[in-house]
Amino acid sequence: MSQTKALKVRVTLFCILVGIVLAMVAVVTDHWAVLSPHVEHHNATCEAAHFGLWRICTKRIVLSNKKDKSCGPITLPGEKNCSYFRHFNPGESSEIFEVTTQKEYSISAAAIAIFSLGFVIMGTICALLSFRKKRDYLLRPASMFYAFAGLCIFVSVEVMRQSVKRMIDSEDTVWIEYYYSWSFACACAAFVLLFLCGLALLLFSLPRMPQNPWESCMDAEPEH
Prior knowledge:
single chain, 224 residues, 51% helix
């Protein structure tokens, strides 16, 4: 592999490493979406919530702005209570997801995210093995694994987006407003980096194309 191509591969792998870190942060944190109810009495407290793939956290916030009819922002101080979804931990409760039949959505999003991490692990193993001499061909399956990981992250993001939309539209919940938070942004950034850099790594790891019409790939001089 030429020095120029090796430099491109290293830069691409660094971007993939950033995408892996962002994907890990998105999977383990619970700030994918923030929900807030409609506020009618401004001299009381309201309960906002934020959740991720594994658990949901609610916070009881004291209203300070009488003109604001929403609960929040979530960063305001208040009593916080976090619990894992019941289908992940039967000993704890999360009525929001159980009542509105969000179980299928949350399980699907979490399972797809786990598949994404599995592809990341397999891609990293291939990339580490490719650093040995004459094993540059392992960069090709590594690139495909990283691209598949990015696609899984995208599907998980879309499932979570549909889950939030269904929750807001449901008549069984008090939530009327929502916005996506920093964990969701990390997942979107991870999808872009893993998918695009995976494709770029595949292109960089392909053998050199013939430079002349009469030269075949097998006859081309090997790169050093």
